[in-house]
Amino acid sequence: MSRAFASRAFARHVLPEFTERTSGGARTLDPYGKLFEDRIVFLGTALDDAAANDVMAQFMYLEHAAPDRDITLYVNSPGGTFSALTAVYDTMRYVGCDVVTYCLGQAASQAALLLAAGTPGKRFTLPGARMVIAQPRLPEPVRGRPSDLLVQAGELDRTRALTEEMLVRHTGRTAERVHRDLARDLVLDASAAVDYGLVDGIVPGRRSTPGAPEAR
């Protein structure tokens, strides 16, 4: 198999392209397409509506294509909007496939919740990654009449309550502990994330992944 490399402008940045020549002909892929073939979805941006839609569409297709096979979600994200979080979170719980999660780089705020929402026993982090648990924040300064401010305050209380519920569900921590921890940003390295219950293990290399060939 020979590969000819090129590059093209992508929606957010420039991605390399490669052409694979096989007995069936030539085809052109970018790295995300190649990962998708292996049932890997990569969240490598802030979690906005566009990113959420991309992830949701891939999950739905992969479940349809092979409902009994795992889907892997790689996360390297600073977080994003709460509505985008719940869209992806609900999709992860909706599909029948097990969801394997990995943190590469960082999983902050809403992204940390997606990391924790993977199938128990299948949530991992690389050694140098960091995870940040943070309470929901309004995306911009709130202006308006007092009645409008009350609505926004109520929405902020609702999103915080949901965040606490998710963390309790997926980490095994008590509601009181999670409530205290959300009073400020809580930064966790890989070992601390395992202790907290955000992930189940640290993977220094592909061969160390549980179930991988020649795992050590």
Automatic annotation (TrEMBL):
Give EC number(s), comma-separated: 3.4.21.92
Catalysed reactions, as listed in the record: Hydrolysis of proteins to small peptides in the presence of ATP and magnesium. alpha-casein is the usual test substrate. In the absence of ATP, only oligopeptides shorter than five residues are hydrolyzed (such as succinyl-Leu-Tyr-|-NHMec, and Leu-Tyr-Leu-|-Tyr-Trp, in which cleavage of the -Tyr-|-Leu- and -Tyr-|-Trp bonds also occurs)
Keywords assigned? Cytoplasm, Hydrolase, Protease, Serine protease
**Alphabetical list of Pfam families matching this protein:** CLP_protease (PF00574)
* Keyword check for Protease: yes
Subcellular localization, per the record? Cytoplasm
Q: Which CDD domains match?
A: S14_ClpP_2
Gene3D superfamilies the UniProt entry points to: 2-enoyl-CoA Hydratase, Chain A, domain 1
Q: Which SUPFAM superfamilies match?
A: ClpP/crotonase
Q: Which GO terms describe its biological process?
A: protein quality control for misfolded or incompletely synthesized proteins
Just give the chief location class.
cytoplasm
Please name the HAMAP family in this protein's record: ClpP (MF_00444)
Task: Give the protein's biological function.
Answer: Cleaves peptides in various proteins in a process that requires ATP hydrolysis. Has a chymotrypsin-like activity. Plays a major role in the degradation of misfolded proteins.
Q: Subunit structure, per the record?
A: Fourteen ClpP subunits assemble into 2 heptameric rings which stack back to back to give a disk-like structure with a central cavity, resembling the structure of eukaryotic proteasomes.
Q: What is this protein called?
A: ATP-dependent Clp protease proteolytic subunit
State the organism named in the record.
Streptomyces alanosinicus
